[in-house]
Amino acid sequence: MSGSSAVSGAAPCRFAHYFVICGIDTETGLEPDELAALYQWLEADRQGRDPDAAATGENFEQSPLRRTFKSKVLAHYPENVEWNPFDQDAVNMLCMPKGLSFRTQADPREPQFHSFIITKEDGSRTYGFVHTFYEEVTSAQICSAMQTLYQMHNAEHGSANAPSSSSSSSSSMDSLASSLDEADSPASSSRGAGGYDSSRDTLYVSKALCLITPMPFMHACRRFLSQLHRAVTGTTAPPLPLESYVHNILYEVPLPAPGRSLKFHGVYEPIVCQRPGLGELPLADFPLGEAFNLLGVENLVQVFTCTLLEMQILLYSQDYQRLMTVAEGITTLLFPFQWQHVYVPILPASLLHFLDAPVPYLMGLQSKEGTDRSKLELPQEANLCFVDIDNHYIELPEDFPQFPNKTEFIQELSEVLLSFGLSANTGAPPRTRSSPGSTPSTPGRERKAVALRELEDDGRNGNLAGEELAVLELLQGNATLERLQALTKRTGVTVARVEALRAGVKCQGTEGQGGRTAAEEDELKNAKLNVQLREVFASRFTTMFADFEAFVIQSAPDLESWLTNREQMHNFDKASFLSDQPEPYLPFLSHFIETQMFATFIDNKIMSQWEEKEPLLRVFDARIDKARLYNVRAPNLRSSSYQRCSILKESAQTIEQRLMKIDHTAIHPHLLDMKIGQGKYEQGFFPKLQADVLNTGPTNNKWSHRTATAQRRKDRHRQQTEHLTLDNDLKEKYMQEARSLGKSLRQPKLSDLSPAVIAQTNWKFVEGLLKECRMKTKRMLVAKMGREAVELGHSEANITGLEENTLIASLCDLLERIWSHGLQVKQGKSALWSHLLHYQAREERLEQQQAESPVPHVPERRKSESCIALPTLRVSCIQDMRHIQMMSEIKTDVGRARAWIRLSLEKKLLSQHLKQLLSRQVLTKKLYKRYAFLRCEEEKEQFLFHLLSLNAVDYFCFTSVFTTIMIPYRVVIIPIKKLSNAMTTSNPWVCVSGELGDSGIMQIPKNVLEMTFDCQNLGKLTTVQLGHDNAGLLAKWLVDCVMVRNEITGHTYRFPCGRWLGKGVDDGSLERVLIGELVLPSTEEDSGRGCRTPPLQRSPSQIRRISITSLSGRGNKPTSAQIQEAIGEVVNTIVKHFHKPEKERGSLTVLLCGENSLVTALEQFFHHGFRSARLFQKTVFVWDFVEKAVAYMETADQMGDLQETTEPLGMTCQSLCRYVNAINSTSRSIGKDGKFQLLVCLGARDRLLPQWLPLLVECPVIQQMYEDTALLRDRTTVNALIGVLETLHDFPITLEASLVKGIDL
């Protein structure tokens, strides 16, 4: 994928950098594989045994033919290439990831091909292509050593015992190891008893030929190596000594120039390769069709989505080449993005501890035949996508967003595959982690040929058509297949795949159309299929990110200041970008724009102002510009309709034309200046090549000269620019730091694997995790704080709830990764939940012991009876766990851990709980290795400190997600003691409502002021209805407030009242609707009674109520200006409320009826200049005025006075009378203020308030009840008020059920 970057600038134009031969070193003989020994050392260290004792003992468990022995790099040419130094250990390990393997004449010995990749620190890549074959062992010393090993093995085991693999224990690494020790070949069991006997058996050992190249020309390298091997096994010697061919490919074959094709010569046939032009998708030669065929289209798209979201992806297959094909296939499809994390498509057995890495990774693990997925215990699975390539099935992480337009996308890909004659099966349905179910294990019947092994029922339903199956069954046990394979060996094509069998039975070895061999036809088909599939993926990104540039924030004046401040900078306006996207894309996009690959992509875009564009970005930008020319994307900006790729045909034609018309032919292999007699041909043996002729290339080569002059030009240019810009090394350092915020590790250093290096790698991980934690908590705070500050504006539209959810999900993922770093023994899928369970078990044991031991009972000091308040809620990590364990909705450990994190975050206890968990050091030591993050004291402290910063903001991430669970609530009613009897003879009742529903009416036992009830999650609480039936003598009741607490999250709400409930007192109300406010937790002592910090939303308090109703001229009446201002502010707040995204709005009830609400403001307006109570001897309420006005209108209507008025006015008049009468005739005993409140709310809802006002103003009753100076009698003021109220008509005002209960309108 980033092959292009590997060849930029200084890398000269040679097709291949090295030719390498790996195999057995006859000098040193049989050595056990030291990496296997290191591996045993690590295992022993982990299990607390003496590591040194473990590493020395040989592994007598396994039969000698199944053990791994050390392979060596026997030769590599040239010695060194300055721009790509030879890494002997890495190459040896990847050429023979399992070390040497031995066979006898009884075993199958087909040659194998695989590729590998080496990723350097700067992210550039080198590719290796390996042809492995078996060569007869001629060294008597080695044969006798093998014989001796067999005798020792048989003596140890008794000859009858067949070899058994080490029993798998609960430990993750042990079971991994045992699965890796399983049989290498199906025939191994038959050897168990007899084994190897040098007198009757021929011994063979594996040898590998490898080409190391800067670009992934897989097909060309494969064909070159197989021809080279054929030259050795053929009955006649090759035309030239082998040195000629190796020298030719190393020194005389150039890399094809961009957009050109190249032909060079192998031993028997010419080989053609082509390289895409600068405006095309970069080179990718691994057969994508095969990746789709192995996984099925749907599965591949799901794995691709996991890769985009930077999860941990583990590929699993017996075949190294399949691991490479799928890994390279998926990373190729990411264009224009690039995988930024650990990338090891073939993970050697000695590096298994790398699966412990707490970072996103894409790794491939070789499985052994007959091993079952269920045996494979992996260190962490919470965020793992497991891909079983051979059984065509995948396991996905929980809660995972789908790729946009997935169905249409899969449809388009299937059509491309079908057009090439490939079946577009969809693969076995992916399993998510939650569904238990073991992998379909393949029955291990022996097979005659590789091709037939593909035919087992492979988890994809009906992937082969009946006839093809019949053809292949016919071939089974038939001489045709043997002949075919013999033919294959001669033509250098391997029939490893069913498709090749399908396509090839007819035309194998014959000339195809246009004089091309079948192999070339196949290669052309592959190249065309590759490019078409890639174009479909690329076109998805071109449509999804067509406008990304508009949201890039260019804030730095020059490169230097940008690089130095990279971490503090905000480079991309995520909120605006998301608000511009179609709704269905959001779940995926909100996660994707948080990834490292997206951040790097944006960084590259910003840096392109100062330096040359990164190649992938250059191609992508050109495509976007082209799309803009043809299609102005303004009107359908937010449409989520699927746009198909329009350039499939032309992209395939480009490739075909390049392969038809060869642009460049390399020099033919020729005789070299060699000593006569060396390189003698001996059939079946690869000769020792002459190093002197292969270590230096020709000096007169025209293209090597071309590179040299280009290089000189580049050097001059660099010297000129160097004093203008940053020093390059420094810049590279900044770049690395800027890009890799804790992600710098691309690939484990394969060469040096001492325990010290492993410790250092883990140290890098620890630093990376801490950095990531700092970044994530900061993002969460900024997102939340920013939102609370910016109350309005397009940038907030439609997104914040989603964004918050994404950030919290990524925090959960980070915590899982931290908890699974350096784990001793894995239990369950979630490392965090497993730790919590251990902790819970310990604490509960301690509690039990304390309960059993007699403790002197200290009487608890109760608060004095006079103070009724909520009892304090105990803060306990275990209590929160129990709440989660009680939730039957959550089925998996990963789900429980996530719910527990959300609950702790909502309660602002996350940091405190984790600190408590980690304070049990004995437990942490038992569960974690010495290098684990959780055992690095200083980092752990900083990590908890970062989490503590999240307490600065309010999250409702538990309440809002688990909406169906049952929650216990506690209600306390606090009367005002001084003024009323705390006791009442009536029967009180209460009903609690929230954003998600209400509790229904609940009777409160007499004289009990506290009760608890269980109810389905009500969400954030909004109102409480409180009332009584007025029975008995002491039926009046003066209530200060009602407190309600959610007993799981601890959220406490206060519902102020400050009024009487009773007939003949106050406004005669027997029930009141109280509006809630969230109480911010203060000191323990204070938590029951309100709080000191100002609450978020206040609702009518006792002071306000009494001052307005009694209007006892205490000089604190608001002035007319203040009243008008208050109304303006209230209406403004309601308008803002509707401009927020729906999930962010909070409670409208508070804005209509709380403190500083529409009702209060209008009450003040109506109270202004209201004739005071002195004249009438009893308090008069605004409702009395409304009732009198309505009575007047009704009589006037009967007298016919209103007949003359215009029609609409008559209608309005009728509506006002109808509403007032409906409110008066309700069965509810709400008082006069309650009725006025109801009238205002209904009028606002039905958009009638501005029409009613003129009626009330015109009514003669106003003169008796209002002073001349009253606002209500001032025409201009009333007209202004009507204008303000009319602005609410644009919004759909819905009223809570608790407000309008019993009103029939």
Essential attributes:
11% strand; 43% helix; single chain; repeat; 1305 residues; 6-stranded mixed β-sheet; alpha+beta
Helix content: 40-55%
Number of β-strand runs: 25
Q: Which of globular, elongated, flat, extended, rod-shaped describes the shape?
A: elongated
Output mean pLDDT: 76
- Low-pLDDT parts are 1-11, 54-58, 159-193, 434-482, 486-512, 704-709, 716-726, 738-744, 788-799, 859-866, 1083-1115
Number of H- or I-type helical stretches = 46
- The rounded Rg comes to 39 Å
The largest sheet, given as strand count, sense and whether it forms a barrel, is: 6 strands, antiparallel
Pfam families: dDENN, DENN, PLAT, RUN, uDENN
Organism: Sphaeramia orbicularis
Domain PLAT: 967-1075
Domain RUN: 802-963, 1149-1300
Task: Please specify the SSE layout and strand pairing.
Layout: H1 3-6, E1 18-23, H2 34-47, H3 51-56, E2 72-77, H4 88-95, E3 102-104, E4 112-119, E5 125-136, H5 140-157, H6 172-181, H7 188-194, E6 203-213, H8 218-233, H9 242-252, E7 261-265, E8 270-274, H10 288-295, H11 297-308, E9 312-317, H12 320-332, E10 342-344, E11 361-366, E12 384-388, E13 393-396, H13 406-419, E14 431-432, H14 450-453, H15 466-475, H16 479-491, H17 498-507, H18 518-544, H19 559-564, H20 574-579, H21 586-592, H22 596-607, H23 615-630, H24 648-660, E15 664-665, H25 691-694, H26 702-722, H27 728-739, H28 755-789, H29 800-820, H30 831-852, H31 877-886, H32 893-906, H33 910-919, H34 921-927, H35 937-948, E16 966-975, E17 988-994, E18 997-998, E19 1002-1003, E20 1010-1016, E21 1021-1028, E22 1037-1046, E23 1052-1061, E24 1071-1075, E25 1077-1079, H36 1102-1110, H37 1120-1139, H38 1148-1153, H39 1158-1167, H40 1182-1199, H41 1207-1224, H42 1232-1245, H43 1249-1258, H44 1261-1265, H45 1275-1286, H46 1297-1300
Helix pairs in contact: 10-11, 10-12, 13-18, 18-24, 21-29, 28-29, 28-35, 29-32, 31-32, 33-35, 37-39, 37-45, 39-42, 40-41, 40-42, 41-42, 43-45
Keywords: Guanine-nucleotide releasing factor, Membrane, Repeat
Domain UDENN: 53-612
GO molecular function: guanyl-nucleotide exchange factor activity; small GTPase binding
